[in-house]
Here is the input.
Amino acid sequence: MAAETWTAVDEYVAGLLAPHDEALEAALRTSDEVGLPAIQVTPAQGKLLYLLARSIGAKQVLEFGTLGGYSTIWLGRAIPTGGRLISLEAEPLNAEVASKNIDRAGLGDLVDLRVGPALDELPRLETEGAGPFDLTFIDADKVHTPDYFAWALDHSRPGSLIVCDNVVRFGRLADPTSDDPTIPAQRRLHEMLAAEPRVEATTIQTVGAKGYDGFSLALVVA
Ligand code: SAH
Ligand code: DHB
Ligand code: MG
Here is the structure.
């Protein structure tokens, strides 16, 4: 099965179920114009994040890795007035682009964008007493996914969801000898998910416009 087929199906599905409006279109266009890598979630994945947030009535959302704000807009649109989405982004240029895109989408009051490496920002959030978060989307530097997961779990409540992107990476997840440096971290994440009594979790492999990858979904149960 060819990657073109995965892309064609993604385009078919997105055209009907996750169409772009001007704000989402502008987020991709402006990101492209300044040379940000096109590694944002696909429209169908953005819609999934939106549906997950909607289905649990998420009001407090945490995102690791903003890039140009594309996934932030999908998530932000699921949050009712009075809620908040904190998004962590290490690169000032990305954050600048994202900030404009978030404002253009009318989400400027809802989204709290923090610029700096996430591991530096987390203690600040801790001091502020941020959370508990109803939904956390982990999509920043993949080697730190287990650290972000551990922090998110400690700042969740029973019923919260934690979603981790890019855990499968073309199937390398199953290869303990992979030379992809992100893989030991994704395997460590899976060991944590298996051993952690506070969550029940699964991982779903995906194909689509971004190739073959997958995401983990953890429900906080205690
Ligand atoms: N969630 C976005 C895509 C994020 S891409 C979307 O789907 O639209 C990953 C992002 O994580 C990049 O913007 C990168 O700059 C950021 N990043 C990398 N290392 C980071 C770190 N240590 N802390 C916070 N963000 C980081
Ligand atoms: C990369 C990062 C992502 O978040 C993603 O969804 C795909 C690729 C990357 O860094 O290559
Ligand atoms: Mg990703």
Observations:
- The chain has a mean pLDDT of 98.
- The CA atoms of residues 87 and 113 lie 5 Å apart.
